[in-house]
Amino acid sequence: MGLPWYRVHTVVLNDPGRLLSVHIMHTALVAGWAGSMALYELAVFDPSDPLQGVAGAHIVFSGLCFLAAIWHWVYWDLEIFCDERTGKPYLDLPKIFGIHLFLSGVACFGFGAFHVTGLYGPGIWVSDPYGLTGKVQPVNPAWGMEASHHIAAGTLGILAGLFHLSVRLPQRLYKGLRMGNIETVLSSSIAAVFFAAFVVAGTMWYGSATTPIELFGPTRYQWDQGYFQQEIYRRVSAGLAENQSLSEAWSKIPEKLAFYDYIGNNPAKGGLFRAGSMDNGDGIAVGWLGHPIFRDKDGRKLFVRRMPTFFETFPVVLVDGDGIVRADVPFRRAESKYNVEQVGVTVEFYGGKLNGVSYSDPATVKKYARRAQLGEIFELDRATLKSDGVFHSSPRGWFTFGHASFALLFFFGRIWHGARTLFRDVFAGIDPDLDAQVEFGAFQKLGDPTTRRQVV
Predict the structure, then answer these.
(1) Does the pTM exceed 0.90?
(2) Which ranges of the sequence are coiled-coil (predicted)?
């Protein structure tokens, strides 16, 4: 049967054994890809991360699924897939739905009751609001976001699965929703996938409750609102209140917290079409240089206005505590009453590698003023990965873009296949419940009252 590449899946429509086979092979490909990419990331980034076991388990599982898929492709004609009354291949789709719902409920409940609670497993990722203390640890069940949502959802899935296994649908509903058609299953499955993809794209982009900062990076809104900057200033103020010097207070700021307060970690900074990881953009962060504090010749403390998210270039403007512009770095080489040379701006670092170092050279002051636009200043290694020095989006941005894009495609797939299965008779032009045999070609049209009919 000669079929175009986009139609080849139709060969398994009425073949339950091989339909199962291609699903197992799909699982093998997904698991194998996940395991292989985990090993690749280990080799490229940090080989000391304890991911070898996880990667190996996925690759072994992929191999077993590959063998199972081949077995089911060869031995497709199993008795379990045949109707006892007719002896023909047949799938009891409502019962299969109940089985899947029950098993997924058991898996969900098991994850919440055993893995998350630490009863049989390591627990779940737990952190603080600023992503500093994240680690995997057991969590006691509680009615909230901590652990019990898996237990509750799993319980609901188990009960729903048992319901669908024990209760048969009314014939009218079964026929009305085309539940005997495998394309209905495809349409419903696509709906579930696109809904899940939209949900995770939203939770990834708009917050970090389900997507820890340590693992995916900060959100763009944390940069826009100065979330980490405010926490840093709060800690410094608390240190000064305890009679610490400015240098001591800044030296106690965790480097991780300072790194979050760097625009390069903003997932919206850098175009999505700049292919490659963040490290290929601004480079590998080697260390925090410290917090720069600028002063003019009158001793006023100056603050550099930070670059908004969607700007590639932004004027370097230094303001005082009242928001009044006191100095700038003009775009053009023109005389300016606010230029660094005339205002006599100096910079001194607190905390980090340059703790206690000060500069008064205008060229150096301008350099650090430009870098202060981007948040805390870090030493970046661009040589190792041949980084291009241009911002790239973070894993949070790539995840959101990928899942939102595929969710949109799957949404249209849901509409397409849902319409095909609901209006199959309209598209085919023949009523599926037609029980009369008509001599085609001999009369004007189907439904002509003069056409001789022979009941099948």
Answers:
(1) no
(2) none
Q: Are strands 377-381 and 346-350 parallel, antiparallel or unpaired?
A: unpaired
Pairing of β 325-329 and β 346-350: unpaired
- The strand pairing partners of 270, in sequence order, are none
127's CB contacts (< 8 A; 6+ apart) are: 133, 134, 135, 212, 213, 214
Which residues, 6+ apart, have CB-to-CB distance to 242 below 8 Å? Answer: none
Task: Give the dihedral sign, CA 159/22/185/408.
Answer: positive
Is the pLDDT at 451 greater than 90? The verdict is no
Q: Measuring CA to CA, how many Å separate 296 from each of 72, 124, 307, 339, 356?
A: 77, 50, 21, 11, 18
CA distance linking residue 62 with residue 65, whole number of Å: 5
pLDDT of residue 333: 63
- Residues 6 or more apart in contact with residue 261 via CB below 8 angstroms: 228, 229, 232, 375, 376
Tell me the average pLDDT of the chain: 88
Give the C-alpha distances (Å, rounded to integers) separating 112 from 13, 89, 141, 148. Answer: 36, 38, 8, 6
Nearest to 208 by CA among 199, 219, 200: 219
What pLDDT, in 10s, does the model give residues 233-245?
Answer: 999 999 999 999 9
Structure confidence at residue 1 (pLDDT): 47
Are the CB atoms for 144 and 151 separated by under 8 Å? no
